[in-house]
Prior knowledge:
The protein is elongated, with a radius of gyration of 32 Å. A hairpin with a 5-residue loop joins strand 10 and strand 11 (about 225-230). It has 3 domains: about 30-245, Rossmann fold; about 260-325, Winged helix-like DNA-binding domain superfamily/Winged helix DNA-binding domain (Arc Repressor Mutant, subunit A, Orthogonal Bundle), CATH 1.10.10; about 330-410, no CATH class. By secondary structure, it is an alpha/beta fold. It is built from 13 helices and 18 strands.
Amino acid sequence: xxxxxxxPKDWRKHSVPTTITxxxxxxxxxxxxxxxxxxxxPEGVTILAGKxxxxxxxxxxxxxxxxxxxxxxxxxxPAERGGALYLGLEDQERxxxxxxxxxxxxxxxxxxxxxxxxxxxxxxxxxxxxxxxxEDHPDIRLVVIDTLKKIxxxxxxxxGVYDLDYEALEPLLxxxxxxxxxxxxxxxxxxxxxxxxxxMISGSTxxxxxxxxxxxxxxxxxxxxxxxHIDGRDVEESAELxxxxxxxxxxxxxxxxxxxxxxxxERQAIxxxxxxxxxxxxxxxxxxxxxxxxxxxxxxxHGMRDDGQVVQHGTHPRYKYTPSGNGNDGNDGNDGNxxxxxxxxxxxxxxxxxxxxxxxxxxxxxxxxxxVTVVTGQGRRLTAExxxxxxxxxxxxxxxxxxxAEVLGDGL
Length: 412
């Protein structure tokens, strides 16, 4: 306001808002945030968004069961025991009963869980009804509203989409704060992917800006695995968890941090590709076999080498890799003695025949000599340089069979 300008008339009706100093704020002893599910679902209003028929309602109902029973949510995360209310507003009695039977898997329903399949919209008595319910049930820790569409106020006036979305769940915020409960509202994701997970939630940014937290369940149709993105005002650092769907009990289980789980799966795919090939592979060859970006595979291989999962052979930039321990080497002749004798006496190919102890196109390790004397294969004798290369690869930890294949450039 410009100096000398008159105060607006509306301002004169109200007193100046109360303020406190930062020092006074720091001296206050405030209660810690209450968590219905530790690290995942704090008190306040949180949106759980996912694509249709991808398991978000099962996840929400499962969280209610975990809180009411005082067990572990997602199989591993502690859930503080307390009452839970599930508003399955898109369901009927029969469907809710069937879902609970599946989740409980023969166990009795926890006493603190109540369900309903109808509730007034927020602007038609829904907020007052929830407040009255919480007053009558002081032990409630979690309320699930499935879905937002069933309870949000009807649009009125000519206000913008952002304002309407921001105000859609605003009446629930003071209720959650007053009673210290977590209110989880199920909603949908838009069809289009986005770099920021929050941009995938159907509606404008006003919807996520007006609530305390967001859970985003992402799952490819037909897949068992999914990720759960966690963000919010009381979440110190956003996280992404890896979940797996168990169809037998219709429940989600925590597999760990999504990025670590994703990397472990990709590492296993690399090991499977190397063992299946039976010969050393270059990063590009591995990337083609597992259908992953070449750069990602190279980065993973460096980590796997440092962790002892693969052995690196050759010189930069023409590295090739074999699995540590060479998972398929058990049939490579007498390879079992490799730890006691690191060199080869006779390594022959099929055309030489006479020196191939196994009658196969594979190498074998002699238990009586430490030098490579004759190395032949595929109808020709290796040169002296190739023999030295075989010896070098064996010294680096490669089995004789893989060393021969590397030098000759053929399969086993």
